[in-house]
Structures are given as C-alpha cells and as structure tokens.
Design a protein that fits this description.
Elements: H1 2-21, H2 23-57, E1 66-69, H3 80-83, H4 91-100, E2 104-112, E3 116-120, E4 123-133, H5 137-141, E5 145-148, H6 153-158, E6 162-165, H7 167-174, H8 177-180, E7 184-187, E8 190-198, E9 213-217, H9 218-225, E10 234-240, H10 246-261, E11 272-275, H11 276-319, H12 321-329, H13 334-370, H14 380-406, H15 410-417
Parallel strand pairs: 4-9, 6-8
Antiparallel strand pairs: 1-10, 1-11, 2-4, 2-10, 3-4, 5-8, 6-9, 7-8
Helix pairs in contact: 1-2, 1-13, 2-11, 2-13, 2-14, 4-10, 11-13, 11-14, 12-15, 13-14
Protein name: ABC transporter permease
Family: Belongs to the ABC-4 integral membrane protein family.
Membrane topology: Multi-pass membrane protein
C-alpha cells in the first residue's frame, strides 16, 4: 500500500513539475480537457436547471392531474389535419364530467384568452395574463391567497364581476395587496371588484408567473367572447380522487366522453386526455436527448484534450528516458514505471477538469445573476461526473505512453538518455 502512495506522490510531483517547467506546452495540452469538461458540465448543469425550473413551475399540480381538450401535450399518432377538426370541449361537457364521471375530486373549465390591460383610476398594467377558470381551479392548482379569498361556486356559476389579482398587479395598482381588497378595477370595459390577492411567487422560466396574472370566473369570459370562438382553446382540468388507479380513471373518462359525443366503436376519440405525468415524462425525454446531444458535441473537445494529454506524456517519457533506465537498473518493476506515468496522466487531466469545473461554477453564478429568478444549478453529482470523466480521459490518454515507458530496456534507456 505504501508503494502506491509513494507512486501517487511522485507522480503528482512530476505532474506539477511538468506544469512549471513546460508552461506553454502543458497549457496547450490541458486546454482541450478544460474546454471539454467545461462544455459537458455546462450542458448538464443547464439541462438540470431547465428541468428543475419546469418541474417547479408545475409543482403546484399533482402528477395525476388531467387536461382534456382538442390538443395533445405530446406527440400523437393522429394526423394534424384530423385533430385540427376536433371540436372544443364545452362548458356543458365540463358539467357532464362533474356529474357523470366517478372518483372526480375536482374539475375546472378553463379558457385561454389573450392578455389584457387592467386599469385603476390613473394606474394601469398592460400584458396581464387572464386566468378564466371555474372556482374548482383554486383547489386543483393549490393557489395561495395572501389577502382576501378566491371566488366561490355561486360567483363562478353566475359569472359575477369579481377578480383575484397576482401580487405584482396589486402592488402596481394599489401599493399593497391588502389595500386592493374591495377596490374596483376596469377590464374588458367593465368594472370588477377585487376580492383576493395571491401570494408572491417570483418569475417563472419564461418570464411570467401568477404574480402578473389575474383570475376571474370563466362565465364572464364566455359572455364576452361567446362559446364558438376557436381562438380561446378551452380545457377541462380534472383531479381524480386520491388512491384512484389513473389508467382505469382515464379509461372511464374516455368511455363516458365517447358516449356523450355519440362516437361509434370504429371512430377515434375526438379529444385528447393529457396526463401531467405524461407531460413530465415527455420533458424527461427531451432533456435526456439534450444531454446526449451536448455530450456528443463536448466529446469532440475531450477527444482533442485526450490527444493533448497523450502528446505531453510521450514527450515526458522521452525526456525522462534516462531516469526510467536508472530506476529499472536499480530494480524498479515494469508495473512501477507503468503506474507512475498513468498517475501522472490522470493528475494532469484532473487538473484540467478542475479548472473546467471552476469556470462552470463562476459561469453559473454570473448567468444566475443576469437571469432573475432562474437559477443555474451545479450539483455535486455533476461535479463528480466532471472529475470522473477527467480521470478517465487521463487514464485512456496515458495508457500507451505508460506502456511504452514500462517496456524500455534499462541499458538502452540509459544509453539513449546520455
């Protein structure tokens, strides 16, 4: 065991001396490893950060949550021309689901409408995201109320002119969420009474969040736009009861909807049932592909770095041929010489990898400071991967020079060195 520790110590010293004595050559050799590790870890960190942000943006929804509409959240075998002809889900179908489908904990009807401008006296906020939903959305999304309340079933069904504001909207219009309660704002040329303000959430991945949104009864929007407007993209959001088998629930939901729409057995579904878990799996698949593409591209940099390490090790073997001959003449085994150069190659590669990790670390700090609430994550696992890859590159790059050094004839080595 002591001899291996001695080899590691001597190899480390040789590696440091190589850095000191041949600064330019060593620098050029390590640049490839540094750039390669930087590229790989930067890609892994960026994809991990993206995935974490997406998961965080949907974390308020349970994975069993179902979105039913005429659009699919992921790839589908139904041709585009065909699903574009599907009818929108209707408010009446939403009521049918609530009434007829068993094991429904909560269901909400939503309409996706364009952003609008909200006014209060001389203050106004533009590009406000409108959440046109029924009252059950509060339970499905687990919205957090800072002041006031969310609208109830009666207000939702009747389409009362009440509204719940995001934190940023309330701050801009009234200075505080508490001051907003009971005030009347103007939207769609109508007056709405503020009954609630959401807790501050922070910016999302694409710059938007509930802080810049408002929620109002969907029946208000139905009166304004009508039920035949193809630009509203309605969805029925369904949350099954806890413990219900989702596959069986979805099968029952599809069967009920097919019967309700009068579809024949040989006809395909004219609606899509999108499960949030399926969307999460789709995101995992996309981020996995992004990782693979990034790793392949970064691999070319590592390949260059590997050749650089191999080159510096061949030069090191040539420069120390005399020393190798003396060591072997004094009884050093081939294994000792082999491990000595292998450890040296690994140490050089790991040094390059650590430099790459440091660059990623500072790069992530800078990127996070310029990206608002979006945080780049450099996880310990990614740091371990970077170090392991560096060591592997050193091992692979150093194996041939180490073998050539271990096989030198001591007499010829001493003579060549002289």
């Amino acid at each position: 065991m002591l001899i291996y520790l001695r080899i590691i110590k001597e190899s480390f010293n040789f590696a440091i001396n190589a850095l000191k004595n041949n600064k330019l050559r060593t620098f050029l050799s390590l640049v490839g490893v540094t750039i390669g590790i930087f590229s790989i870890i930067a890609v892994l960190a960026a994809v991990d950060s993206l995935k974490k942000e997406i998961e965080g943006s949907i974390s308020s929804l349970d994975n069993s949550t179902i979105f039913m509409g005429r659009f699919s959240f992921g790839p589908t075998e139904v041709p585009r021309w065909k699903w574009e002809q599907f009818p929108d889900v209707t408010y009446e179908e939403y009521q049918f689901v609530k009434r007829s489908v068993p094991d429904v904990m909560a269901a909400s009807y939503t309409l996706n409408v364009p952003s609008e401008t909200i006014k209060y006296e001389d203050n106004s906020v533009s590009n406000v995201e409108i959440g046109a939903v029924t009252d059950e959305y509060y339970e499905i999304e687990s919205l957090q109320i800072a002041n006031g309340r969310f609208y109830n079933e009666s207000e939702s069904n009747s389409g009362s002119h009440v509204i719940v504001l995001g934190d940023e909207i309330a701050q801009t219009l009234f200075g505080s969420g508490e001051a907003a309660i009971g005030k009347k704002i103007r939207l769609y040329g109508r007056k709405f009474t503020v009954i609630g303000v959401l807790k501050k959430e922070g910016s999302g991945l694409f710059g938007g969040s509930k802080d810049t949104s408002v929620f109002l009864p969907v029946n208000v929007i139905r009166r304004i736009y009508g039920d035949s407007n193809k630009n509203l993209f309605p969805f029925i959001i369904i949350k099954p009861e806890q413990g219900v088998d989702n596959a069986e629930f979805i099968a029952m939901l599809k069967q009920k909807m097919r019967v309700h729409r009068g579809l024949k057995p040989d006809e395909i579904d004219t609606f899509f049932v999108n499960q949030l878990q399926g969307f999460a799996d789709f995101i995992d698949n996309i981020t996995g592909q992004m990782n693979i593409i990034g790793l392949v591209i970064s691999g070319f940099s590592l390949l260059v770095g590997g050749f650089g390490i191999a080159n510096i090790m061949f030069v090191s073997v040539k420069e120390r041929t005399n020393i190798i001959g003396i060591q072997k003449s004094m009884g050093a085994k081939n294994r000792f010489i082999l491990l000595q150069f292998l450890f040296e190659a690994i140490i050089l590669a790991v040094i390059g990898g650590l430099i790459g990790l440091v660059l990623v670390f500072f790069g992530s700090l800078i990127a996070s400071s310029f990206s608002g609430d979006f945080q780049f994550v450099l996880s310990p696992w990614n740091m371990f991967i970077g170090t392991a890859i560096s060591a592997a590159i050193g091992l692979i790059s150093g194996i041939l020079p180490a073998i050539s050094a271990s096989r030198l004839d001591p007499v010829e080595a001493i003579r060549t060195g002289m």
